[in-house]
Write a structure and sequence with these properties.
This protein is mainly α. About 65% of the residues lie in helices and about 0% in strands.
Length: about 500
């Protein structure tokens, strides 16, 4: 049992962060903030706004986004303290290793695959759908048998049906992003900055142009009367809506995986994590307020609510029967999903790098390219795995599985901050979580409550996933852990010393 809870010391991790120069430290606060925005702003702002307004909250969807944002801020503050204290690339995995022990580190490292790899698979499939729709709008038709999950029956141009072969666009985007991540973190960050500017420009264009079409009568009643069932409007609808839109905030924690590539992580990591979350929260609230002000909330339960609101607001200038604003919104969604894939693959490869460096995964994984200074093998392996599953699988329950993995990471990080404050209060912290005795428990509790709201099939998949992970830990990781070998070496020296005395 003692071996299961062996820990890496904060001092050791800080020494490693200071002396390990294998990865390039090139990211400043702007790059880190853009990584956070790139991970957070995806289809959530274009889809969830209308769905939650129509089904749960009405105009009070702004309160749902606000509550979800507050719950995320609790976790963001805890992540910021750890990222500044231990600026290495392992994120929640490393934080758990330093506070709760190796078994929890393995659990959270295995769990992060659900957030980053499964998240990237889901988003790549969604990216393919938006690209097919966008190309179709401008007269370019991608064969349906090459843009759907294998085995899915699709309708061809002549009306006949056939089973799809694989999802080619999903492979293409994962290949492009993986290549960028191998070539260099600086180049990846520059690419992310460009596409984040594009999608922010689309969102801001919508906010500025549609605001003039608001009719305040659409905001009344602001909190619609509950229809007699939990979650259907009223305050229960606001809280359930917060649980749904929370998943639009997933991704800001991926910023912490780039800590070892930040120029000044003690200062810049908290800036990147917190500022990206705050910016996205403000955008979500503005977009949801405008959408419900321009149109009655009951009419927003459509796949593209923001495009519908834009048309209703008179932004639907058409050329050749095609709405230019609808095209812009689709293009913004494509850009948004591209940056999400990039940050998710970045996060996953860095977590694998850290686990391999600690001996919990094979050592070949943590090799750094001599020229590009990136963990190229783990980037390629991650990209290949994501591309394979994105090409063959439908979305199904991948989104919920990604969410439960993220929430578990949030709960463990918030708990770890409090444990470290109690156990090792002497460490000098460049960033201190304010009101930690409230913020950390509130972050843990809010994450657990949202986990509890997820359906049983998602929990069942999580349990099966962890059983597989525990088998891997027992068979390989426990025996190859560098801490394990360190303990064996100490025991060997102790035995030798005892024999000499005898």
């Amino acid at each position: 049992m003692k071996r299961l809870f062996r820990r890496r010391t904060i001092t050791d991790l800080q020494f490693e962060a200071h002396n390990d120069q294998k990865l390039h430290r090139v990211l400043g606060p702007l790059n880190l903030t853009m990584l956070g925005i790139g991970a957070i702003v995806g289809t959530g702002i274009f889809v969830l706004t209308g769905t939650v307004a129509a089904q749960n909250s009405g105009p009070a969807v702004v309160l749902s986004f606000l509550l979800a944002g507050i719950a995320s801020v609790f976790a963001a503050l805890c992540y910021s303290e750890f990222a500044a204290l231990v600026p290495v690339s392992g994120s929640a995995y490393t934080y758990a290793y330093a506070t709760l022990g190796e078994i929890f580190a393995w659990i959270i490292g295995w769990d992060l695959i659900l957030e980053y790899a499964v998240g990237a698979i889901t988003v790549a499939i969604g990216w393919s759908g938006y690209v097919v729709s966008f190309c179709s709008s401008i007269g370019i038709h991608i064969p349906p048998e090459l843009s759907s999950a294998r085995g899915t029956f699709v309708t061809l141009a002549d009306g006949t049906q056939m089973a799809a072969i694989f999802n080619l666009p999903a492979i293409v985007i994962v290949f492009i992003v993986t290549t960028l991540l191998v070539v260099g973190i600086k180049e990846s960050a520059a690419f992310n900055n460009v596409i984040v500017f594009v999608k922010l420009a689309v969102v801001l264009l919508f906010i500025v142009c549609a605001a003039s079409a608001i009719k305040t009568a659409n905001w009344h009643p602001f909190i619609p009367v509950n229809l007699g069932k939990f979650g259907q409007f009223g305050w229960s609808g606001i809280t359930m809506g917060a649980g749904v839109v929370f998943f639009a905030y997933i991704g800001f924690d991926a910023v912490s995986t780039a800590a070892q590539e930040a120029k000044n992580p003690q200062r810049d990591m908290p800036i990147g994590i917190i500022s990206s979350l705050l910016i996205c929260t403000v955008l979500y609230i503005l977009v949801s307020a405008i959408a419900t002000g321009v149109m009655p909330y009951s009419e927003l339960d459509v796949p593209d609510p923001i495009a519908k609101v834009a048309d209703h607001a008179g932004m639907g200038l058409k050329v050749g029967g095609v709405s230019l604003m609808a095209l812009l919104i689709k293009f913004g969604a494509i850009a948004g999903l591209s940056s999400v894939i990039l940050v998710m693959l970045l996060g996953q490869s860095r977590v694998f790098y850290s686990m391999s460096r600690d001996g919990l995964l094979p050592p070949v994984i943590c090799q750094v390219h001599p020229r590009f200074k990136t963990p190229w093998i783990t980037s390629i392996l991650t990209g290949a795995g994501v591309a394979f599953f994105a090409a063959l699988l439908p979305v199904r329950e991948a989104g919920s599985l990604c969410s439960i993995g993220t929430l578990l990471a949030f709960a463990i990080v918030c708990t770890s901050v409090l444990v470290l404050r109690i156990r090792e209060p002497h460490h000098k912290r460049a960033f201190v979580t304010p009101f930690v005795w409230f913020v950390a428990p509130a972050g843990t509790l809010s994450a657990l409550v949202l986990m509890a709201s997820l359906p049983w099939p998602t929990w069942r998949r999580l349990i099966v996933w962890f059983l597989i992970g525990m088998i891997m830990y027992v068979v390989y990781s426990r025996r190859h852990s560098k801490l394990h070998h360190g303990m064996l070496a100490k025991a060997h020296l102790k035995n030798e010393g005892g024999s000499a005395l005898k």
